Each structure stands twice: as structure tokens, then as C-alpha cells.
Amino acid sequence: MPSQPSKDLETFDNPMPTRDYTIRIDVPEFTCLCPKTGQPDFATLKIEYVPDQRCVELKSLKLYVWSFRDEGAFHEAVTNRILDDLVKVTAPRFMRLTAEFNVRGGIYTTVVAEHRDARWQPAAPVTLP
């Protein structure tokens, strides 16, 4: 197998650090295990962030997400852990992680976690005619 799961997240220099802009990443194939039953849990991860000096490299993100496949984790815990790991390596101005878990026992779970740098002020929304 040419690739293996990895907890190492790589970054690269933000090509436009003087501008606020949003990066949106959808990860439709996240899997982990239910810590109670050991059965697989499936989710779509939606990452939105305003980078500062660093951006996350997508192949490393793919391998990082893969690394949870055989780990037991509650939805709330794994969502916050992933956000913390991404914030640690990228130090973004703002980041939101939305984890939309598939149905389990007739219940859908969505967990939303956010990070905001205390020094960052978002621009006012623009309304176009």
C-alpha cells in the first residue's frame, strides 16, 4: 500500500497572508468507531477557515482523517480533537469544523466546533444589490 494513515498534519505558507479569505474543505468519507459498540460511525467533515500564515496541506489531511478509522471516539470528542489539531498546526484567524454524522439508531448527530483568534476581527458583511 503506497500510503498509510498518519497523525502528522503538514502545512504550507499562506500565499496571501495580507487578505482575509475563506478556505472550505469537505471530507465526505470520515470514519471512526463507536466507543461503546465498536461499530463504525460515518461522517462528513466540513472545514471552513480564514488562514493566517499557514494553510493545511490536503494530502496530509486525507491521511490524518484516515488515521481515525480504527479509533473509538464519541462524536463530540473527535470533532473537538480534530479542530484542536488543525488549529495547532495552522494557527488560523478563524476555523469552524462541522461534523455531520450519519444516522445511528434513528438519530443524526451534528457537532460544530469553532476557534477564533482573539486578535482577529472579521470584515463587515457585504450585501450586493
Describe the structure.
This protein has 129 residues and is of the alpha+beta class. 19% of the residues lie in helices and 38% in strands. It contains 2 helices and 6 strands. The strands form 2 sheets. A 4-stranded antiparallel β-sheet has the order 2-3-5-6, with helices on one face. A two-stranded antiparallel ribbon has the order 1-4. A hairpin with a 2-residue loop joins β5 and β6. The longest helix is centred in the middle third of the chain and has 16 residues.
In short:
The chain is α+β, with helices and mostly antiparallel strands and 129 residues long. The chain has helices spanning 58-66, 75-90, and strands spanning 11-13, 23-33, 40-50, 54-56, 94-104, 107-116.
Low-pLDDT segments, ≥5 res = none
Tell me, rounded to a whole number, the average pLDDT. Answer: 96
Q: Total number of helical segments? A: 2
Largest sheet: 4 strands, antiparallel
In whole angstroms, the N-to-C terminal distance is 53 Å
Helix content: 10-25%
Calculate Rg over CA atoms: 16 Å
Number of strands: 6
Q: What's the SSE pattern?
A: EEEEHHEE
Taken as a percent bin, the fraction of beta residues is 35-45%
The main sheet orders its strands as 2-3-5-6
Global structural class: alpha+beta
Shape, per Cα inertia axes? globular
List the helices and strands and how they pair.
Blueprint: E1 11-13, E2 23-33, E3 40-50, E4 54-56, H1 58-66, H2 75-90, E5 94-104, E6 107-116
Antiparallel strand pairs: 1-4, 2-3, 3-5, 5-6
